[in-house]
Design brief:
1 helix
Length: 41
């Protein structure tokens, strides 16, 4: 039971970290797109 609880916590932490990483990548891509739009104008 204790091992199961630890595994659930670890999986949750990994999932949250992955979400934060993907959000960061999305923001970086958005800023890159905005820079391209400004240079095109």
């Amino acid at each position: 039971m204790k091992i199961l609880s630890v595994m659930i916590v670890l999986v949750t932490m990994i999932g949250l970290t992955a979400c934060n990483t993907m959000a960061g990548i999305g923001k970086d891509l958005q800023k890159g797109g905005e820079a391209l739009e400004r240079s095109a104008q």
